[in-house]
Amino acid sequence: MSEMLSDWQKKVIEPAEHIREYITKNKIRYDGRKANQFRNAAVHRNMITTADSSAIARIGGTAAICGMNLEIMENDTLIPSPGLVLNIESVSPTIVVSWQNEIDKAKCILKSLIEKNIINSKSLEIFNGELFWVIYCDFVVLDCAGGLLEVCLVALLAALQELRFPVVRVLHEDFKINLKNIKVDTTETSPVSLSNVYPVASSFLKLGDEILICDPTDEETKLIGDAFTIIVGAQKTLCGLFKTGGAASLSKQLIDESVEHALQRRRHILQLLGIEDEDH
């Protein structure tokens, strides 16, 4: 009993030291996972009837909804390339403060990924660039227990898979092509042209010199630190490596091990999304 009480006291008084000792000694984490084990992932599509496309993704205790709506604009409109406007909000303004760092990180990285590795920007052009499609992409964070970027990226890919562009026709061939001279035909549609990179993000923690923790929870990240995220795509492409906490450097061996776990995770996520993995 005294040992249990002492263990409980240490968890309360020295939580960072306790979690390190717990994982090192027991080879499992507080939630029962092994160090290299990822949380279960799930995705559901078209849950929002008022959106042109939507998806909700969940990884462990983290969940977010991605809703998309389309609009046609003229080519002189100041819209960020490649024609996708992204926003991430919390389901409740009262709790967004504790999630703000995760939201800001996810927003920044997603914008970079979209431009380089997700959407073929030429596919958004209409009539050789006279007009173009704008995709308004709104995320609502339902819960955040670590790995928000990973969840948002899965929801984004799933929603883009379901998005369809209506056919746009010119009303009067002899007049200039603009918003007043077109008709949108929703009876005929085409899918979004996505790149074949299909990037997937995975986060990790470095615990000491030997232990690599995959898919950390928010609690683990706060207590252990030394967090980093790896994004991999098709043909084992490294789309990004972001170190988001801690002062320790990452060895080549640790990065190689992390990339291998990230590639395995990507295969699982692509299977979840129904996307064929061309690497296998």
Automatic annotation (TrEMBL):
Molecular function terms, GO-annotated: mRNA 3'-UTR AU-rich region binding
Sorted UniProt keywords: Cytoplasm, Exosome, Nucleus, RNA-binding, rRNA processing
Localization per record: Cytoplasm; Nucleus, Nucleolus
Annotated CDD domains: RNase_PH
InterPro entries, sorted: ExoRNase_PH_dom1, ExoRNase_PH_dom2, ExoRNase_PH_dom2_sf, Exosome_comp_Rrp42_subfam, PNPase/RNase_PH_dom_sf, Ribosomal_Su5_D2-typ_SF
Pfam families, per database record: RNase_PH, RNase_PH_C
Domain Exoribonuclease phosphorolytic: 37-166, 198-264
Gene Ontology annotations for the cellular component aspect, listed alphabetically: cytoplasmic exosome (RNase complex); nuclear exosome (RNase complex); nucleolus
Domain of life: Eukaryota
GO biological process, one term: rRNA catabolic process
Entry's family note: Belongs to the RNase PH family.
UniProt cross-references to PANTHER family, sorted A to Z: EXOSOME COMPLEX COMPONENT RRP43, EXOSOME COMPLEX EXONUCLEASE RIBOSOMAL RNA PROCESSING PROTEIN
Designated name of the protein: Ribosomal RNA-processing protein 43
Organism taxonomic ancestry: Eukaryota, Metazoa, Ecdysozoa, Nematoda, Enoplea
GN (gene name): EXOSC8
